[in-house]
Amino acid sequence: MARDGGGRSKRESKAGAFFMATLVMWTVSVFFEILFNKRSELIPIVLGFIFFQSANVVVRNFIARDPLFVNTCISLLHSSITSSLVVIVMLNQWMIIGTDKMFEHSQLVKFTWPLAYQALCFSCGYFAYDQLDMLLHRLYSGFIPSILVHHLVLLVCFTLALYRKVTINYLILTLICELHSIFLHVRKLRRMAGLRDARSKSVKAEWVLNWLTFVFARSLPHVLITVKLVKDAPKFDKGIELPLALLGMAGMNLLNIFLGIDLFKAFGKERKLHKDHSDHNE
């Protein structure tokens, strides 16, 4: 058993080294663009990283020192800020040109809505921070940690779009899923704090909001974005934009299926614990 644990630890160390190397290469690429190609519009990526790293220091020194708790707190902060920015960007554009025009192919691919570029940069800075935090504190498991793969794919897709200044609005639309992530992180923090009473009104309300946002802020938008991409496929120029977008959305939809299964299992488990507790009291 000990040998197996040692082998697992060695494999995870190799995975950590690989993802750390990719993060370093990504960092070098971003700083090269900013410093040598004079891409000052990318500075919000760095500011985003600094902001979330600073928030990490504050939480670690004044609230709790457990790495997983701190990481989840910052993830909740990111989801709250990013989802708010996405809603602001979309409402602003809706008031300017209306829904009929804002979802046209040219609007989503070639134009950039006000604040959309900065919001995407800021979120990109968070994913870089979170990748580093998980690597430093070993907040991952497995030979191919899905969370590290997820962050790497997002960093690659986001930065390529930011470098080329295309499909920014499409990516902003995908980030509406952060509304659902808020309640995922709230649930995780609530359980870490020992609050697991399924009978409480707050827990019931949390589950209602969790399911509503899972359907209307994550699953349905991602499916609609995928349908839109397929429908507008002939309108894309030849290049990597369409294949990369379709591949990314296929991955997101697949992750949403797995997430939905996990949520259903967690919901059933909490209901079962509540029923067993009620039967025991009777």
From TrEMBL:
It is a multi-pass membrane protein. Its main location: membrane. It holds the Pfam family TRAM_LAG1_CLN8. Keywords: Membrane, Transmembrane, Transmembrane helix. InterPro entries: TLC-dom, TLCD. The chain crosses the membrane at residues 15-36, 42-59, 68-91, 141-162, 168-186, 207-230, 242-264. This is TLC domain-containing protein. GO terms for cellular component: membrane. Residues 64-272 form the TLC domain. It is found in: Membrane.
